[in-house]
Amino acid sequence: MKITPSDQQLLSLLRENARAPTAEIARRLGLSRTTVQSRIERLERQGVIAGYTVRVPGDLERNLVRAHIMIAVQPKQMVAVTKALKAMPELRLLHSVTGAYDLIALGVVSTLGEMDVLTDRIGVIDGVERTTSALILSTKFER
Length: 143
Description:
By secondary structure, the protein is of the alpha+beta class. 41% of the residues lie in helices and 21% in strands. It has helices at 5-16, 22-29, 33-45, 58-61, 78-86, 112-123; strands at 65-73, 91-96, 103-109, 128-135.
């Protein structure tokens, strides 16, 4: 599947607001509404657009404690560790990365004490060698 520069612009606008009216998106892209609608449908059929989600404004989550949790995994334990982490609702996302750690998770909880408990729960999963956490102080921008 080939993503054109116009598709990239369309995807960027949908990331800003996936519920924006097609006519508004078309106006911003300088395309017809039917062209935009057919491109969205094509991107959905091709699996480029896998779904839509909800973003909650920062002020609703302002008092939540967020942290990047870096996780080193024992060889051959990635599948089991990933499955255990996916079962933890406090983890919003999980990235596989290169470097000293194998995974980086985003943990979101109500208190520092809950973050302490969450990191302890992660640390005792069979196959987890070590963890390191970095509390998020603020988000400068998000796309």
